[in-house]
Design goal:
mainly alpha; globular; Arc Repressor Mutant, subunit A; 9 helices; about 180 residues
């Protein structure tokens, strides 16, 4: 005897699968190649320019990104900020001075893009005759690009709070005070 067909569950009623099949992952991504996966997260020019502005130019607000010389459209900026946040490359928090605005910051994952930005800059300087960058920065990058990238990354890596070292003192009688 044939069982009656169950009504399909709505998306919100479905339970997440415990394990995701390789086929399902491949549908979500073109391939599992690490280069492809990285490009899917940051492969468009606007995303990398937003990362650049956060890392090198100190922009941290929506208006700051809009003022960049490349003149990103507002709809594209909103889309890329959301995409970067969803991919864990930036974080968004309310501006303490004005709760209607947001402050954007690189996460550790986003800051780890520093070596890629350095390589892109050096590549552009080598092959694009119109490329423009401060000579001191170029020389610093060329001198040791790994150290330059580490300095950029260090600026965004969360600092771990060190526990203060307690000095051994002579035991002294103390009275517990509630005030």
């Amino acid at each position: 005897m044939k069982k009656p067909a169950k009504a399909p569950l709505s998306k919100s009623a479905r339970k997440p699968a415990k394990s995701i099949s390789k086929a399902a992952v491949q549908k979500a991504h073109r391939s599992l190649c690490p280069i492809n996966l990285t490009l899917e997260a940051v492969g468009d020019r606007w995303s990398m320019l937003i990362v650049r502005d956060l890392m090198l130019r100190g922009h941290s607000s929506y208006q700051g990104f809009l003022r960049a010389e490349e003149k990103i459209a507002t709809n594209i900026l909103a889309d890329r900020l959301l995409k970067l946040e969803q991919n864990g490359l930036i974080s968004k928090s309310a501006d303490p001075a004005d709760k209607r605005r947001f402050i954007y910051a690189l996460t550790e994952r986003g800051a780890d893009l520093a070596p890629i930005l350095v390589e892109l800059a050096l590549y552009g300087l080598k092959y694009e005759p119109m490329a423009n960058m401060a000579k001191e920065v170029i020389l610093d990058m060329q001198k040791n690009k790994q150290i330059f990238a580490q300095r950029l990354t260090r600026n965004f890596t969360p600092k771990l709070k060190e526990k203060p070292v307690k000095k051994k003192e002579d035991p002294v009688e103390e009275t517990l005070s509630l005030f």
